[in-house]
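Ticket 4471: requesting a sanity check on a complex prediction with 4'-deoxy-4'-aminopyridoxal-5'-phosphate. Repro inputs:
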Amino acid sequence: LTKRVTGAGASAWDLHSKALQEKSEGKDVIVMSVGDPDFSTPEKITAAAKDALDAGDTHYTELTGRYELRDILAKRHSRLTKQPVTADNVIVLAGAQCALFTSSLCIATQGDEIIALEPMYITYEASICVTGATIVPVSQLAETGFRPDIKAIEDAITPKTKAIFLTTPNNPTGVVMTQTELEKIAQLAQAHNLWVIADEVYSDLIFAGEHVSIGSLPGMAERTVTISSLSKSHAMTGWRLGWAIGPRHLIQAMEKIALCMLYGLPGFSQEAAKVALTDLANEPKRMKEIYHKRRDLTLKSLKPATTLLPHCPQAGMFLLVDIRSTGLTSREFAENLYSQTGVCVLDAEPFGHSAKGHIRLSFTLSEEQIVEGCRRICEFCDSLSQQKTFA
Ligand code: PMP
Ligand code: GLN
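Returned structure tokens:
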């Protein structure tokens, strides 16, 4: 067999899978590892899907997504970015993940280099390397709060650089890039004729700062593919409803891959998406308030653990925590924490070199579970400190 998916990300979910398995067998497990909202998809959205199924919407659909849905997405994008896009600039795919993979396949090939700012979302490495291109990770350091290092990005550009993968808000750091940071990256992209693959799946869940789409900046629409989904904004991870918006020639190339790989998304999923984006356009505001409260509760509940140093996220549903002063590696921390307390967090190192010594904790749980999970984490850290004292 060929080995298409390589890199640390390929095995990053091992402990999480084990925790899910043991939870289903009745073990007292608290899953703080995955960014899957604990809310149900709003009823009105689910009802739209049921109605579509009852009406016989069970056949192949348009390969690039239904026109009405693409039109809604185009109008939304135009409103947010002031860029005059139409439904022809939009392709609807199976989640942001599928959009990242497909755009990567269209943009890069063997011999190209793609810059990705790390810590980065776990699947980027494989999504880039599957094209034959080489990934060039650029570190954003914990010491600078993981803010983009413009000089390091500029230094990483070579004649082979084809694109930059950009995530704002970021998973796992929760950093929201400022307009100034994005303008500097946009300048580099234009000066070196680069594509920007902009992953914006958390743009509706910002607590501090403001979302700026790099595609809205002057001269960027023609070189940017903007990717998002309903997974996080509407608690719809399982519906696999995402999209990419970009220049027509790129979307046309993506359509060809979608034809061979996907052959259209389920109609009922798309009908549900239409309702999510129209009648429930304000739903993310409600979710954002809840996540904001949970973020603050998580930070407060971790306070007793003085060996932990959490990085306060500006957005999203994750908290990166520096665990270096516990004396364990992040892998040891995650494994021992799980075996001793049943709390599952992610070793953050697979997100990139600069996340070494950090764990990622998700706050997509109820307040009671957050409090209990953090209590167990604090107790675990306490026992580590005591072991050190007696050693
Ligand atoms: N990008 C980032 C940064 C993510 O965290 C995720 C996971 N939610 C994805 C893409 C994939 O999202 P989707 O469920 O839309 O495929
Ligand atoms: N994006 C989510 C996370 O980072 C979910 C990923 C997944 O289920 N594989 O946790």
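Notes from triage: Residues 367-390 form the longest helix (24 residues). Leaving this open until the requester confirms.
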